[in-house]
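Re: that chain you flagged

S.,

Sorry for the slow reply, it's been a week of failed gels. I finally had a moment to sit down with the sequence you sent. For the record, here it is as I used it:
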Amino acid sequence: MRKPGSSTRRAKDSDGISGRRASLPLVGVLAAMAVSLTGTRVSAIALPWFVLVTTGSATQTGVVAFCEMAPYVVVKAFTGPLVDRAGPRTISWTTDLISAAAALAVPLLHAADRLSFPLLLVLVALIGAARGPGDLAKDVMVPEAADHARVPLERATGFAGVTERLASTLGPAAGGALIAFLGPLSGLTVNAACFTLGSVIIGLALPRGMGRPAQQLPSPQDATGPSAEPGYWRRFGQGFTFLRSEPLLLTIVVMVMVTNFLDAAFSAVLLPVWAKESGHGPSAIGLCAAAGGLAAIGGSLIAAGVAHRMRRRVVFFAGFLLAGAPRWLILASPAPVWAVVTVFAVGGFGAGFLNPILAAVSYERVPRRLLGRVKALSGALSWSGMPLGGLAAGAAVASAGLAPVLLVGGALYFLTTNLTGLRPEWREMDRLRGKGRPADDPVVPPSTKPRQEPDPDPDPDPDLESDGGVRQARSVR
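Prediction finished late last night. Pasting the structure tokens below so you have them in one place:
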């Protein structure tokens, strides 16, 4: 005889199992991001130290850093159409394996006494060129993984933000420990192992149908019927056209490009100069970085839990108000170290909310068929000022001194991140929340779009359109 309640218990158990299976894709994407980002952060400590101790040249160390970052930005900008065509899953695991092979080649060639400096530059450039598409592919799979897990976009992007913050906090610490006990080449070996593990996770944790090429995604057909798949440059132009037609996304890209330029100047030059001139030394830099990183993890965790219930515009600009100008102004004052660390912690907490909101807005507004190429362009443009930040800061400090540069930089940060919030585009941040996904239709030039007949039963909400009984949000153009 069946015991009372046994079917209910089985149903609950079944729901629990299905829930765990549904969340597996999101866990897999986040785990792959975690290990690859951690390996990258370890390498960011180990590789410059290896170059510095083997060559004794700070100039050559800077050249190596540039040879990794420049290919990362350039290749990432142009591989969006390839990610859409081949599928983010394929791009992710293949580029991770390429990065792993290039990273592992450095210690192997050095042990065989065959690692010349030009060859090192080639390997580092290969690592950077492969990292760009790999990072892009994992970003592109986040909204699809969120759909599988049935979680809000802000929660999924909040978890992604926590993953990035954890890697940025733990990776450098692990890199420093590895260098101290095993030498710098051990960090590159760990980097190769992390990229290999990330490739395995993407291959095993994701369901077979996830991360498909864009042309395999369902999309409404054009009135002229199916057409041939566009070529590379046509795809690239579609991404550029879409980004240019979205005022909010374009405004975000320009704003983040300026803040990334200022942040690069701050971390690469101004913070070390402050530590030296104030007499606090490099330990103060470590304290500030640790306080900001740990607080950012806390902010990202809160964003993952409750940001989908908050007004994005208010939270976004409040976060930038905490994370931006105060760091610059506190270093320009004769404040004690504990006050500086406190300001960095408060700023890190505010920064933890930023990336989840930015990612959710982007995922909502970009059709899935265009996500790879649009994210590639927006990401590359956002990072385009970073290689120049340190150069500009060094020249400015040499000509004007540290305090004036900090004051001017803080003012620029405030104007960029807060006064620009008065522009009308920012009012669109919450408009598409909870109204579905943008239609996965290809970009069609206005002259070739089919003429639409008037709707005999117009939708009472002009921002929504009905599609087979499912209400979908129309992208704001």
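What I noticed first: Residues 26 and 145 are 5 Å apart (CA to CA).

Talk soon,
D.
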